[in-house]
Amino acid sequence: MVLEFFWFAFGLVVTVSIIAIGAYIGTLRALDTFYGDGNSMFLSEEFHGRQEP
Q: What is the mean pLDDT of each run of 10 residues along the chain (53 residues)?
């Protein structure tokens, strides 16, 4: 019983951590796209989503 609760709690912590890391990386990518200049940390030269003047 206690072992099952431990594994459930451990799985829940791992799941929440993975979701939080994904949301953090997604937020960084969105901010980098919105505020970034040509020196993007995430976007390569082949990215065609925004046009340079």
A: 94 98 90 70 58 54
Say if CB 49 and CB 29 are below 8 A apart: no
Q: Which residue in this structure is represented by tokens 């040509």?
A: 38
Per the CB < 8 A criterion, the answer to whether 43 and 33 are in contact is yes
Classify each residue of 15-53 as buried b or exposed e, where b means 16 or more C-beta atoms within 10 Å of its C-beta: eeeeeeeeeeeeeeeeeeeeeeeeeeeeeeeeeeeeeee
Distance from C-alpha of 49 to C-alpha of 29, rounded to nearest angstrom: 13
